[in-house]
Amino acid sequence: MKKAGKVSKKQLAVIDELFSGELDEQAVLDKYNVGRPLYYRWLADDVFAEQFDRRIAAAYRQSAALIARYATLAAAKLVQLTESSNPETARKACLDIITLDSRRSMLDTRGKPADEKPDEHHLQTLSPETASKILEVLAQEANTTDNDETQP
């Protein structure tokens, strides 16, 4: 029998294999000769479930770190896309930029919804329709300005 408070080597191997991403769940269970009923008992076991949940949390933290690492590059690319010759691409990039900060601020550092209520600034997000209209007006204004500058 396993010691109270610890997962067995087999359980740990199954967890490791599940998170390696090489095999799907059923293939992992087959590889380690673990039937569904036993696997479900493991999942109901607090110690196994806690270990499994820790691995899930660690995977989310790794994902969040990777996203954070490339956020600057992604933001720069979005800014470049606002200059796209395709108006739809430019419009979508602008919408993404407008909504980016409000989505980020609604999450805490663990990537989970923030417990605290966001301040009023973050509650006032624009609908895609409103943002689109604003961008359309800005684009028209920019075109008018460009035309005024080119005329003698």
What's the helix and strand layout?
Layout (H helix, E strand, L loop, with lengths): L8 H12 L4 H7 L4 H9 L1 H36 L5 H19 L14 H4 L4 H23 L2
Fold and architecture overview:
The chain has 152 residues and is mainly alpha-helical. It folds into 2 domains: 7-70; 82-152, no CATH class. The chain is 72% helix and 0% strand. Helix 4 (46-81) crosses helix 5 (87-105). The radius of gyration is 25 Å and the shape is elongated.
The percentage helix is over 70%
Largest sheet: none
Count the beta strands.
0
Uncertain segments = 118-123
Average pLDDT rating: 79
* Percent of residues in β-strands: under 5%
What is the number of helices?
Answer: 7
H and E order = HHHHHHH
How far apart, in Å, are the first and last alpha carbons? 90 Å
Radius of gyration: 25 Å
Total individual domains:
2
Give the key terms:
2 domains; 72% helix; mainly alpha; 152 residues; 0% strand
Q: How would you summarize this macromolecular structure in one to three sentences?
A:
The chain has 152 residues and is mainly α. It has two domains: 7-70; 82-152, no CATH class.
